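pls design
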């Protein structure tokens, strides 16, 4: 047993690895600068100074706008066109500016609004489009004293259409990807109108962009709401929702629409979800994993990324990093041999490559690891770098998997209390770092020191988030 624990202690020492994903393929450094400048002009009111000469003479105005964008998206405010910033700029999004604020006066004065679909999608049935739009309006009607009625022929307050490229409103679409849709603030004429890019692959039950959340977002603009920097808000500018996401307005969305239109006489029983506060003393985690030199903390549909070289810790959505991963995961671990990360939810798991893309053929069933059919989900996972062993924590038991052999080790499962003295079950999350193992149970974490096989410290779970 001592040899195993000595091996575990050795493997838990920090390793020298790349500190960040490689630069996204397809563009040179100059190409990235051009992309960033175009993005900042369009969405952050950046005014370039003399093209290339400006870049060599001084980057201050450019860097200031870049930091503004990085702050808005919850990125490290480096003022540099780094891979994370380029990745954020390449995300599909709304076509409206992130710095334009409509103000409370930009709202409808009547509480019953009409809308008309003047041109349907060429890639989705009109029935599905109408259903998605009806559901989208209903979300806003549940939060504010507003009613929405569809008109078929006569004029309406809000006209909705699917369009290609230049469609005579001064804001041409860019084809597949990029800008998904845009809307106009309340007012006469084109005011309140909503346009969707017809070249996108719109869907409600397949691959492509989910029409419902995009519609909810754009309808928010049509009601007078601006973009929000809260990554949990429907009014966040980037596309955040896959088909697996449970769609609802966030606390911030509801607060903003109520400030504009007032309270409903009757409110829904369920309170809208708040974006987690990293310094909440009751904060717990769904999963924690290493990712190169970072630690990634999962909560609901959000993550915090903790890097030793970055002081600021910002919250972002799981989908901002891995677009195909569901919310409310059960467990995650880094497989350093394969340079991949595995995420578990229920009886399924996903494997993500270093490119941040899900490996082809996933999700798969956890029976791949040799679990019997009685195991329906996993509480937490801990992987050991040097011995290529992985511990799965399920209820009060620990299962040990040999990554090289691709099978469970004989004699397992064993009681967690036997393999990890002092650790109570169930375990929410677990991660190894700097020679120790950290078990997360509710709002508390237990520091376990392998060579002496005991818990050596108890701390709040969110200590890692510098609280």
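designed seq:
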């Amino acid at each position: 047993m001592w040899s195993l624990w000595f091996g575990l202690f050795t493997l838990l020492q920090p390793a020298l690895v790349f500190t960040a994903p490689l630069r996204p393929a397809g563009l040179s450094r100059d190409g990235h600068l051009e992309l960033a400048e175009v993005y900042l002009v369009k969405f952050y009111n950046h005014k370039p100074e003399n093209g290339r000469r400006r870049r060599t003479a001084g980057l201050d105005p450019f860097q200031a706008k870049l930091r503004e964008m990085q702050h808005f998206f919850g990125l490290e405010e480096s003022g540099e066109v780094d891979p994370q910033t380029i990745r954020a700029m390449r995300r599909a999004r709304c076509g409206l500016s992130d710095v334009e604020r409509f103000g409370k006066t930009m709202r409808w004065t009547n509480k019953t609004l009409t809308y008309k679909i003047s041109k349907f999608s060429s890639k989705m049935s009109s029935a599905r489009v109408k259903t998605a739009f009806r559901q989208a309006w209903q979300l806003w009607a549940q939060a504010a004293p507003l009613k929405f009625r569809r008109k078929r022929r006569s004029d309406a307050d809000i006209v909705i259409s699917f369009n290609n490229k230049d469609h005579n409103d001064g804001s041409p679409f860019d084809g597949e990807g990029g800008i998904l849709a845009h809307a106009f603030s309340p007012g006469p004429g084109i005011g309140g109108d909503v346009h969707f890019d017809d070249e996108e692959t719109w869907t409600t039950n397949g691959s492509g962009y989910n029409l419902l959340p995009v519609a909810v977002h754009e309808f928010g603009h049509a009601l007078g709401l601006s973009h929000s920097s809260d990554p949990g808000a429907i009014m966040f500018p980037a596309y955040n929702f896959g088909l697996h996401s449970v769609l609802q307005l966030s606390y911030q969305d509801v607060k903003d629409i109520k400030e504009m239109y007032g309270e409903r006489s009757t409110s829904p029983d369920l309170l809208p979800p708040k974006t987690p506060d990293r310094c909440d003393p009751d904060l717990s985690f769904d999963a924690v994993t290493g990712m190169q030199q970072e630690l990634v903390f999962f909560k609901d549909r959000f993550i915090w990324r903790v890097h030793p070289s970055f002081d600021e810790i910002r919250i972002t959505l799981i989908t901002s990093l891995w677009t195909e991963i569901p919310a409310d995961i059960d467990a995650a671990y880094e497989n350093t041999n394969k340079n991949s990360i595995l995420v578990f939810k229920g009886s399924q798991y996903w494997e993500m490559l270093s490119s941040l893309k899900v490996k082809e053929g996933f999700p798969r069933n956890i029976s791949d690891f040799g679990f019997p059919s009685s195991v329906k989900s996993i509480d937490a996972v801990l992987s050991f770098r040097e011995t290529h062993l992985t511990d799965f924590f399920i209820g009060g038991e620990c299962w040990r998997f040999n990554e090289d052999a691709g099978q469970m080790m004989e004699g397992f499962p064993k009681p967690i209390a036997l393999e990890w003295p002092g650790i109570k079950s169930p375990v929410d999350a677990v991660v190894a770092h700097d020679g120790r193992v950290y078990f997360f149970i509710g709002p508390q974490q237990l520091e376990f020191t392998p060579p002496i096989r005991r818990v050596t410290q108890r701390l709040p779970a969110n200590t890692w988030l510098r609280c």
